[in-house]
Write a structure and sequence with these properties.
Helix content is 30%, strand content 24%. The chain is an alpha/beta fold. Strands 1, 2, 3, 4, 5, 6, 19, 20 and 23 form a nine-stranded mixed β-sheet that branches. Strands 8-17-9-10-13 form a five-stranded parallel β-sheet.
Length: 503
Amino acid sequence: MDTSPDPDAVEDLDVLVIGAGISGIGAARYLKRAHPRRTFAVLEARGAIGGTWDLFRFPGIRSDSDLHTFGYEFKPWLDEHAIADGDAILRYVRETAAENGIDGRIRFHHRVLTAAWSSATARWRVEVERTDTGERTALTCNWLFCAGGYYRYDEGYTPHFEGRERFAGPVVHPQHWPEDLDTTGRRVLVIGSGATAVTLVPALARTAAHVTMLQRTPSYIMPVPSKDGFANLALKVLGQERGYRLARRKNIAQQLAIWRFCRRFPRAARRLIRAITVKQLPAGYPVDEHFNPPYSPWDQRLCVVPDGDLFRSIGSGAASVVTDRITTFTERGVLLLSGRELEADVIVTATGLNVQAFGGVELSVDGEPVRLPDTVTYKGMMLSGVPNLAYAVGYTNSSWTLKIGLLCEHFCRLLAVMDAGGHDTCVPVVGDPAMPTRPFLDFGAGYVRRVVDRLPRQGDRAPWSTSTDYHADVELLRRLPVRDDGLRMSASTAASSAVDAPR
């Protein structure tokens, strides 16, 4: 009898999690706890745990949400700083992986290239490239859980700048910050006005000769305390578990109340934000020129600055803001539309991200390529017509991880329902072909608008709409039944054959 291994055999898993960042580690922990007998692995294209928090190394990197809501529901955030720096968040994610035995399930330098679904076998065949060796392998799984976020890790977004090659100094994108770049005593020009720019400017201003933030359009910027006094007191008085739960509830309610106020009363919100900004800056500062966006609050994400550090840098003279457009780069800096030249020794293009759905994995179902714009999201975690695929995309108007936790819980509930019914296949099906749809990310940010036509759509009603309301998602994903009219469960031919086979 020939007992040699089958050269065509591939490893088969129950669940394959793609991405070892904050979402993937969370998904693996929920899965391991709720379904300890299921086999799973976490594939990570890079060589370390942490995702965004390991990738970005620019000065001052920090969260733009409080860690009592950005952190996992099951692991209290104990640092006194609610707005935390990147190193603290990275330690937290890695601690979570180690404490829950997830680190042993991660396969580094594994990039998923393609995933092909077979209805006959109820399996995804996944083609993987080893990023360290170039070797290609394959494996199969019943479920794919895509937890790689929504932007490209290998490439940030930089628009075309006329004459860029003329500039004599370094031009750096924050996503690829050089370890040996020293800006001490140098003039730094930061192009951009989003979360990355407002983080970089005060951090660089501590040692640079001067930092200028050049923006085409202003952003709404709000000062927040870096330490949450209520949360720190609750942790001290009530203990880690109860204190964390209370602080988390308070901050969830606070986030939602601010967002609802801004959306319901945009003029009042604009006036309030402007008044706060005026108080943060020196008397007579041209607030309306540099901090009064043409759009309403929360049409784009509100930027936060802990303890008003950006405003303090401006007030001290260490940093300044210029609102204008670039005509061309020059040997010494950039020439603006106004005719003014901004001189610099280093230019930083904090110009955003390149959005990429599902890490760029090419999906197909029974030999037919999946065209994402033809799909509709289901419960903000699956795609119409695509079986056994879940994804993790968090909130844009609140802490990202708040939604990730609910999605992971619901995914585990879904697996349990399938087990109880003897099903191995699950696919969302839109019952009303005439249902109106709108963009998947209904958000005004430039990085979204650039790719909106390449992303899935969402419907105008639950469960086909992608909710941005935590309490509504608690009801939908945690309390309501898993099954509804939009979800089809079945047993594959392979499963039926296994049941019918003689024993």
